[in-house]
Amino acid sequence: MVVHCASFGSLWWLRPGNNASDLLRFSSHAAVFNTTGFVSGSRERRLWHIAGVIRINLGMHSNTADPRRLSATSYECDGLERRGEWNRLLLGRRLGQTVEAEKIIHCTRSSVIGRIDFDSSWHCNGIQVLAASALRGEQETLLFAAPGAQLQTDAGDWEVLWDGLAKR
C-alpha cells in the first residue's frame, strides 16, 4: 500500500537501537515515533483516548534530522495494525512524488476544524483513527483516510484532500 503523509501529530520521540556500544544506535539503527498529544511547557502529554503511533525506521531514510522533512511525502506501508492496545502504522521506504497513494495521513486539530464528536457517526467508511488525544477541550486526531473521504465536526463538514482538509 502507498500512503501519503500530509501532516503528523505534535509529539515525536526517538527509540535508540538495542546495542549500547553501537555507534549508529541513535541514527540508522534507531526508530522515530510520532503521535497525537500536547506540549505544556517542558512536558509532553499524550492523553490518548485512542492510542496509536506512526513508526519510521531511520535506517531506511536519509536526511531525518528534522521531522518536518518526513511530511508531504509518500511511503510504502502495510496498513494500520493493532499492537496490543495501540494502533500502529509502520512507514517503509520513501517513494517519489508521482506515485499515487491509496491512503492519506492527516493530523486534525480542533482549534482549526472544530471538535469531533466520537460518539456520533462523524465520518464515512473511508476514515480510520490512528490516534486521538484530548486536553482541556482541545483535540488532536491522526486520521488514516482515503482521498475524498468525508468527516463532520462541530464547525461543519470536511473532505480529506492530498494536502489537508477542505471545508465542504
Principal-axes shape call: globular
Work out the helix count: 1
Biggest sheet, open or closed, and with what strands and sense? 11 strands, mixed
Whole-angstrom Rg: 16 Å
Describe the structure.
This protein has one helix spanning about 110-115, and strands at about 1-5, 10-15, 30-35, 40, 45, 50, 50-55, 75, 80-85, 85-95, 105-110, 125-135, 140-145, 150-155, 155-160, 165. The chain has about 170 residues and is mostly beta strands. It has one domain (about 1-165). The strands form 3 sheets. Strands 1, 2, 3, 6, 7, 8, 9, 10, 11, 12 and 13 form an 11-stranded mixed sheet that branches. β4 and β5 (about 45) form a beta hairpin. It is globular. The mean pLDDT is about 85.
Short description:
The protein is mostly beta strands. It has one helix at 110-113, and strands at residues 2-5, 11-15, 31-35, 38-40, 43-45, 48-50, 52-57, 73-77, 81-83, 86-95, 103-109, 127-135, 138-145, 150-153, 156-161, 164-167.
Outline the secondary-structure elements.
Layout: E1 2-5, E2 11-15, E3 31-35, E4 38-40, E5 43-45, E6 48-50, E7 52-57, E8 73-77, E9 81-83, E10 86-95, E11 103-109, H1 110-113, E12 127-135, E13 138-145, E14 150-153, E15 156-161, E16 164-167
Parallel strand pairs: 1-11, 7-10
Antiparallel strand pairs: 1-8, 2-3, 3-7, 4-5, 6-12, 8-10, 9-10, 11-13, 12-13, 14-15, 15-16
